[in-house]
Amino acid sequence: MLKMIHRKIALVLIVFSFLYLLMSYQLPEYPYAIIDADFVPKILGFLLLFLSVLLFLSKQKETEEERKKRNIPKADIVTLLVVCAFMLVYIFLFEMIGFFIMTALFIFICSWYLGYKRHVVNGIVSLSFSLFIYLLFNYMLQINLPAGILPF
Amino acid sequence: MGSIEGLMSGFQVALSLQGILFVFIGVFVGTFIGMMPGLGPISAIAIMIPITYSMDPAIALMMMAGVYYGAVFGGSSSSILLNAPGVAGTVATAFDGYPMAQQGKAGKALAIAAIASFIGGTVSVVLLMLFSPLLSSIAVSFGPVEYFALMLLGLTAIASLSDGSTLKAFISATLGIIVVTIGIDGQTGTARFTFENAYLLEGIDFLIIALGLFALAEVCTLIFNRNEAADKEKNEKIGSLKLTKEDVKEIKGPITRQSFLGFIIGVLPGAGATIASFIAYITEKKIAKKPEEFGKGSVKGLAAPEAANNAATSGAFVPLLSLGIPGSGTTAVMLGAFLVLGIQPGPLLVQDNPEVFWGIIASMYIGNVFLLILNLPLIPYISKVLTIPRPMLISLVITFSMVGVYALSFSTFDLYLLLIFGIVGFLMRIFSFPAAPFILAFILGGMMEQALRQTLTISDGSLSIFVERPIGLTLMIVAVLVMTVPLFKKKSWNPAKKKTDAA
């Protein structure tokens, strides 16, 4: 029964709509409103539930094109996860170390990891791009990006 | 203020040194980003929003309009040169544009595309100028009932018309509204679905959604294909840009027809550049004397979708400017750009901020001229962007998205959210859930909820109010029809399928 991918997705969505409805019913009441804050969420919850059930029951077969889109080689998934990890580290250290250093490092390491071989060019681009954005935001647009451990 | 005076004052803003400079920057950056495979107008506008934070609204929006049609044009160039459409709206351009490039006529193809875009864009700006104030004057009398019905119509239309499964598109739209219910409710002050997290009280900013679902999700696809392209050096020989007299004669008809048709399709909710360009291609093929030439490098087959997609691009501004309701994913992001700058588009825009309204229209004329000037001689150089190594491009797009989001709120919490929505966007992409209904629903969701609750508060909770107002009722009926008909019809309208027939 669950071999078809759309059924699996539909189940996830059904569970999600139940959770959402559950939370909608727990929203505190506001005594003076004719239409309270939980009105629309409840409609949405039931709507999503209804649509997900339709999706579960739908007999439409997956096209070849869709199947191809879904099948991703393991190596690519690993690459994606590694890039995600880079991003997490970047976000985590962003305010501590500062925009300039972190961004330059991120661009250099990420491009290198994804297979860019010309290290000198990579270094120049990552440094100059980060510096350009930093100056653009801090001095021209007056939006202060975190300086971090650098004095400027 | 009359249209002529308004336009004159608009030109004053647009033709100031600053105005010209920023329209130019907008068109240039838009073309640049639109050319990159996969990055379309939505990503281009979203990436540029942070730049506008401290700018004068009129100038900023003129720049954004430039980004928008620049991106549409950039997509055409990569369609022609590499058969790699940057955006769905330019897929049809590749049908005849790429064969022309293969025959060594890339220069001519680009010239035709630029001219067709220019005419399509200009014709439709004129129409936009005539129609928008008219629609605004009708829309002033609209109350929450009509607005709710209109937005519902826009949402159901985009869900029904997006490619792939209609059901999935509706689920995508519903999820979009669900995400917007996070945060403090504007009417009662109740904190909804915030999980006691102070960062969520104000809700999730649309830029996070736009960059996550579009730019970052696209990055994932770029990561998979990072070793393709780039090495394929095909665009060495662009060839002459000149058109012959026969060419001009051939493309005159299609360009004129499709400029008008494209505009009308662009105005309709849910339709847009993609549908306009496919319809243009198909109708021109049907009425052509030699339909067999289509797909083998016909100048008509190239000119028609190009005129149509640019005409539709400006057409999409009609509902945005005059009603304040975006009809497509791209104009939804445009609306976000408006709101960031504190401008509320809608029937009152012409009265309250005439310099913005007419400035945008004037900037579109200028932008179209720039597109022509910029693209004809510079294309060989701009197309170098296609040779930027993919790994580098990926890193740059990621950092730019993150900087944009950080500059919005100065909190790293939003950056984590961005990553989450990037993953959501990626999952939606691999499981064939269209993202455009999600972003439109997200933008419209808050307004829809407000309109619905206002309506029901006026009527004291009675649903009969929806039946009592004739305009509202008509719109509701159309919306319900648009929603139900495709759900119960087996075959949904699918541009991808048409593509195989047409190609």
TrEMBL record, chain A:
The lineage of its organism: Bacteria, Bacillati, Bacillota, Bacilli, Bacillales. Residues 9-146 form the DUF1468 domain. Pfam families: TctB. InterPro entries: DUF1468. This is Tripartite tricarboxylate transporter TctB family protein. The chain crosses the membrane at residues 9-27, 39-57, 77-93, 99-116, 123-141. Coiled coil: none annotated. Keywords: Membrane, Transmembrane, Transmembrane helix. The keyword Cell wall biogenesis/degradation does not apply. The keyword Transmembrane applies.
Automatic annotation (TrEMBL), chain B:
InterPro entries: DUF112_TM. The chain crosses the membrane at residues 12-33, 45-68, 80-98, 110-132, 138-159, 204-224, 260-282, 323-344, 356-382, 388-408, 415-444, 471-488. The keyword Transmembrane helix applies. Residues 20-440 form the DUF112 domain. Keywords: Membrane, Transmembrane, Transmembrane helix. The keyword Transport does not apply. It comes from the Bacteria. It holds the Pfam family TctA. This is Tripartite tricarboxylate transporter permease.
